[in-house]
């Protein structure tokens, strides 16, 4: 079992939007939910959301990017999944933007197998309630198999939530506003395939898919990661063409490292500190077949062996 995370208190850092379009606290008109396009410069969509059946408590835009859960009132939990499964030996990264203020039992972003239901007539944290799904809650915890650990400060209206799935080594990492939160799930290769998923219990809650891409695991991807890391470490200026290639195709392979700028905000302009995972202090390789261990105090770290 895993120790449950302590509840947040008033001194905790609060979730923030990605840009300044969402700093105002007054209600946003329904027609203005799509007014902000910050962070959506890359028009890359390898997959979109799968259209649910007519009985679903979900309304989807014609382009199948924007999803509104429980458009009138909520009577439980609804979920949608991506139209394309994530399979072994590929790297995947996708992002959603939270367009409404999250509230209620839970709003989650994550992944799940084909066995995860798309609706339940109960108010629950659907992603992570069993061994077939993994989810990040808007409240912060990461959930799996009815257990949770603190994953981040959570997300709010205007936040961008990224999901990085490495089906080559079997790991899952969440990003909040393009900042890595650390690898938190291991051993995903026990699933033949996983689907991107989002779910909500809150009436009139809306999310928009803003990016979805994948890379086949290869020497090219590994070489790009090493080269990008070396360039960052030595402060070299890459040729514009090569740098644009990194940003457009291989930015996911850049080191998951962050620094603090003068205002205390996270920045990726320079790379000086590597984020670590809990397993890295115990084992020579962080990709042992223990899973779901991260951001847990040393005395409470537990590795479950398959």
UniProtKB/TrEMBL annotation:
**Secretion signal, residue range per the UniProt entry:** none
CDD domains, from UniProt? SPRY_SOCS3 (cd12876)
Q: Per UniProt, what is one Pfam family of this protein?
A: SPRY
| UniProt KW keywords | Ubl conjugation pathway
Question: Which residues are in the B30.2/SPRY domain?
Answer: 27-216
Key word Ion transport present = no
Taken from the UniProt entry, a GO cellular component term is: SCF ubiquitin ligase complex
Any one GO BP annotation for this protein: proteasome-mediated ubiquitin-dependent protein catabolic process
Q: Does the keyword Isomerase apply?
A: no
Q: Which PROSITE patterns does the UniProt record give?
A: B302_SPRY
What is the protein's given name?
SPRY domain-containing SOCS box protein 3-like isoform X2
The species is: Papilio xuthus (Asian swallowtail butterfly)
Q: What is the lineage of its organism?
A: Eukaryota, Metazoa, Ecdysozoa, Arthropoda, Hexapoda
This chain is encoded by the gene named LOC106119702
């Amino acid at each position: 079992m895993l120790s449950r995370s302590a509840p947040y208190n008033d001194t905790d850092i609060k979730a923030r939007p990605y840009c300044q379009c969402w700093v105002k606290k007054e209600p946003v008109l329904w027609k203005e939910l799509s007014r902000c396009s910050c962070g959506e410069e890359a028009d890359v969509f390898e997959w979109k959301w799968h259209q649910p059946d007519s009985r679903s408590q979900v309304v989807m835009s014609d382009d199948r990017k924007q999803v509104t859960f429980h458009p009138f009132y909520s009577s439980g939990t609804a979920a949608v999944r991506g139209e394309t499964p994530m399979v072994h030996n590929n790297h995947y990264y996708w992002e959603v933007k939270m367009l409404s203020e999250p509230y209620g039992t839970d709003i989650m972003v994550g992944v799940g197998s084909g066995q995860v239901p798309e609706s339940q007539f109960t108010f629950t944290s659907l992603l992570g309630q069993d061994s077939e799904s993994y989810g990040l809650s808007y409240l912060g915890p990461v959930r799996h198999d009815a257990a949770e650990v603190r994953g981040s400060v959570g997300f709010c209206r205007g936040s961008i939530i990224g999901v990085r799935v490495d089906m080559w080594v079997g790991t899952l990492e969440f990003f909040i506003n393009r900042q890595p939160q650390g690898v938190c799930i291991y051993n995903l290769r026990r699933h033949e395939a996983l689907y991107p998923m989002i779910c909500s219990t809150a009436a009139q809650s809306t999310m928009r898919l803003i990016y979805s891409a994948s890379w086949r695991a290869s020497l090219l991807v590994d070489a790009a990661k090493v080269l990008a890391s070396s360039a960052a470490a030595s402060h070299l200026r890459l040729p514009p063409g090569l740098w644009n290639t990194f940003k457009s195709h291989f930015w996911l392979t850049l080191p998951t490292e962050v620094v603090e700028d003068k205002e205390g905000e996270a920045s990726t302009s320079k790379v000086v500190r590597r984020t670590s995972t809990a397993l890295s202090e115990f084992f020579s390789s962080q990709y042992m077949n223990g899973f779901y261990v991260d951001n847990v105090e040393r005395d409470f770290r537990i590795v479950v062996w398959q």
